[in-house]
Predict the 3D structure of the following.
Amino acid sequence: MLFHVSDDESSDETANNVGSLLLQLQGLDTASDQARHRKANLAERDHLNAVATTVVEWERRCTALAAQIENSEREIALAEQRSTEIDASRRRLQDQMKTVIAPREAEALQHEIATLDEERSALDEGTLLKMEEQSAAETELSSLRAQEGALRQEASSATSALAEVEASIDAGLTELSTSRAQLVASLPAALVSRYEHVRAKLGVAAAMLAGSRCEGCHLDLSPAEVDEVRRAPADALPDCPQCGRLLVR
Ligand SMILES: [Zn+2]
């Protein structure tokens, strides 16, 4: 298929000029595609995501440790309360022992005291473990809290770094878009529309014919195809018979 650049009386110069503008348009679009691809795959975003994940994990661990410490404190307080009760009961039983005469009654009291002693000893053991756990949790929590400043700073730097590189790419994209609008205004509307159609399908719509090779698909045209392209009117942009891109001679 041939695309005629203009209905007016055309010259080689017109076609060459349009071809060159079309390649410039292609250059701008390729640059925009690359900028958008770069923006979508920024190392700065990966870094920010990694830092954000670290912050979330840090917060989760701090919350879990604080809850664990609170729970230990409550359990230790309950154990202490129960120990006080046991001690009071034990004193009461020992006072009773002083007044008991019957050996069976004394034996029963001694058994009760022994049971209380066992419970007291188990409570002490449990409390000791809880206190060790609490102390370990407090040490870990205080070490985590010491990291907070550096962590928040890192998150803030990562956020700024991403925003900065995104803004710079956006500024480049705006410039490309302005240049593109100017270029499009200088090209025939029908040619731009054909270019857009091919670009939507192939990404790259315009390519140079270098010797017998299409620089779009990097395939060689047969001598007959090259001949046909060369014999096309000067004001026409033929398609590459292999890939369908607009061939600029
Ligand atoms: Zn081609």
